[in-house]
Structures are given as structure tokens and as C-alpha cells.
Write a structure and sequence with these properties.
16 strands, alpha/beta, six-stranded mixed β-sheet
């Protein structure tokens, strides 16, 4: 397509409405409504059109909103009712099959679906929406569907525990498109909402850079960084004369170590290596180091690259063979960890 590319996002929420969700039902509506408000805001900011579809599933799978402009979405208050068992596989199949019938003319269309469940599949084999009554064949059908989806489709699932994760992997969900949430409390559901929001942010920012779909939608750490994502994020390396990498030989406060290494300390000039899961504030800069070349990439694009929204968020240092994440320190006594490195912007 020539000229200005029209980005059209089709975002679907596929929500578990089985009886066990009843203690969370008000919270589900609240979290879904917040997600939709957030999508509306980001669609305006990024000048992308977003259309929302909502499915609810228990014994059967019901589409309650189909491909509706996010700026005109009603609350889910009247549309989310709980009761019944968990036809999870049927919901995955039906939602993707029906969304695949959406017209994709004139624009760069992309499909992003989040399935949220608090339990194991236990009802698809007798669900009218399922293509087969055989449970094993249902698993196979989902795996085949995911395997054959085009590159502009992203299907992610939030499950309550490791067992749910294992089952989702057996169904062919990419490992980084599965997240575990705490289904026992409203706080757990709130956190699940934040995880979905973070993944959506990464997806929408990536869209403008030509990324059409993702098989690592929940990864917010180093494993989201590779040559392709660096190129797609439009990152250019920092001039090597503008920074220095200093090995950390012992426990020391960041300012002391900078001075001891023969440099002047200015607030914000030093970046520590991310070595444990921690919260990173919106104003903190991020830098990414390519291990093979010691090239450093920085700037707002580095945040986007890791899928970090412009709010405080928890980041894991995830093991990555090729890249290391550095976080700007704004305190003078941040404790450095021996055998890591310090990145100093000169």
C-alpha cells in the first residue's frame, strides 16, 4: 500500500464467565472497562484505529460485542454474567474463527486476542460451538489453528497456575504468550489487567514500527530484545565516545564507584545492570547493551523495545544470551552488585 499506512487493530477479550469467576465478576467488568478506556486513549495518541470484540464463555461461547470502534464502546456491566463450566478451547477456536472473517481491506490490519481464564478446560467437549466432541482432537484443533495463523495474528492467554500454563503450551500457545495470574483475589485480577495493558502497549508501539504480530507478547525483559526488534524500534547505537562500561569489582554505592573509577558523578549519568526483578519508574531511562559488540542503544525507543509503558512497571532481568539491560540510577547510593558492569554516559 502506498502513502500513509492506515493501522487498524482488532483487539479481542475472551473472558471466562464460569461459576468460579463469580467472586471476581464486578472486578472483571472494571478491569475490562479500564482496558478499553486505555485502548481508546492510546489509539488517539498513536493515531491507530482500534476495534474491540468481547467474547464471554462458560458452558457456551458468546460474542457480546463484535469489532466495535473503541471510542464508542459501552461498559461490559450489562454484558458479563457468570455461571457454568469452562469451555476454554471452544472459546479460543470460535473467537479466532469468527474474527478471521473480518474484512482486512485497505489498511494494515492486526489481530490481538487475550483469553482470560481462572481454571482448566472442562466443558468444550459438550459445547455447541466446538467442532468436535473429542477432547484430544480439540487440543489438536487449537494447536493447528495457532500454528497456521498469519503473521498479523497474536493470541495470548492468562491462566491461574503452572498446570494451566502446561495445558496452554500443549494447545500450541507460544510460551511467551502465556501469563500466570492470581485468580484468587481482586488484586490478582487488577495485576492481570496491568499485564494485559503492558502487552497491549508494546503491541501498539510495535505496530507503528512495522511489527504485525508477536509470539512474545508478555515478555518484558531481555528476551524481547533481538536484532529484529532493535531494527524495528528504530534504535541507533550511542556513539562509543559518549559512554564507558566499568566493571564492578566489589559492593559499592554508585556515586562512590564512579568517583573511584576516576570520573565525575552527575545525577542520571550512571546506569546499573538489571540483575533482579524490580520496579522501574516512568521517568527512568533504559539502555540496552549488545554483548558481542558492546554497542549501547538508549533513548525512549529502548523503553519501547522492552515494551515498557510510560508508567511504573516491574521488569525481570530475564536471561538473554545477546543483550544486557541497564537502568538509569537517580540516587547516589544505589548499591552496585559485584561482577556486573556499570554504564557511564560521559
Amino acid at each position: 500500500m502506498s502513502g500513509n499506512q492506515n493501522y487498524i487493530n482488532h483487539v479481542a477479550l475472551v473472558l471466562d464467565a464460569s461459576s468460579s469467576m463469580s467472586h471476581l465478576s464486578r472486578k472483571v467488568v472494571e478491569v475490562a472497562d479500564q482496558q478499553i478506556a486505555y485502548l481508546a486513549r492510546r489509539s488517539r495518541d498513536l493515531d491507530q484505529e482500534t476495534r474491540v470484540t468481547v467474547y464471554v464463555f462458560a458452558d457456551k461461547v458468546e460474542c457480546v460485542i463484535y469489532d466495535k470502534d473503541v471510542l464508542r464502546m459501552p461498559s461490559l456491566k450489562q454484558l458479563y454474567r457468570v455461571g457454568g463450566m469452562t469451555a476454554l478451547l471452544a472459546a479460543a477456536l470460535k473467537s479466532q474463527r469468527e474474527l478471521a472473517q473480518t474484512a482486512q481491506l485497505y489498511g494494515d490490519h492486526s489481530f490481538l486476542t487475550f483469553v482470560l481464564t481462572d481454571g482448566q478446560e472442562n466443558a468444550s467437549h459438550r459445547c455447541p460451538d466446538a467442532p468436535t466432541r473429542n477432547s484430544r482432537e480439540l487440543v489438536k484443533a487449537v494447536a493447528e489453528m495457532i500454528e497456521t495463523q498469519e503473521d498479523n495474528w497474536t493470541l495470548a492467554v492468562l491462566v491461574p497456575d503452572q498446570m494451566g500454563k502446561r495445558e496452554a503450551m500443549q494447545c500450541g500457545f507460544p510460551k511467551e504468550n502465556i501469563a500466570i495470574w492470581d485468580a484468587t483475589s481482586t488484586k490478582g485480577l487488577e495485576e492481570a489487567g496491568q499485564v494485559i495493558q503492558q502487552a497491549t502497549e508494546k503491541f501498539m508501539v510495535g505496530r507503528a514500527q512495522g511489527i504485525r504480530g508477536s509470539r512474545a507478547v508478555f515478555s518484558t525483559g531481555a528476551e524481547a530484545v533481538n536484532k529484529d526488534t532493535i531494527e524495528a524500534a528504530g534504535l541507533t547505537p550511542v556513539n562509543p565516545s559518549e559512554y564507558q562500561l566499568i566493571p564492578v569489582a566489589r559492593d559499592a554505592a554508585i556515586r562512590d564507584w564512579v568517583i573511584e573509577s576516576g570520573h565525575t558523578y552527575r545525577t542520571g549519568c550512571a546506569f546499573y545492570q538489571l540483575s533482579k526483578s524490580e520496579k522501574i519508574q516512568a521517568q527512568k531511562q533504559i539502555a540496552v547493551l549488545e554483548k558481542k559488540t558492546d554497542r549501547v542503544y538508549a533513548g525512549p525507543e529502548a523503553r519501547a523495545l522492552l515494551g515498557l509503558p510510560d508508567v511504573e512497571v516491574r521488569v525481570k532481568p530475564d536471561h538473554n544470551d545477546d543483550f544486557t539491560i541497564f537502568v538509569q540510577s537517580t540516587s547516589v547510593n544505589r548499591k552496585l552488585i559485584p561482577h556486573t558492569r556499570l554504564l557511564l554516559m560521559l
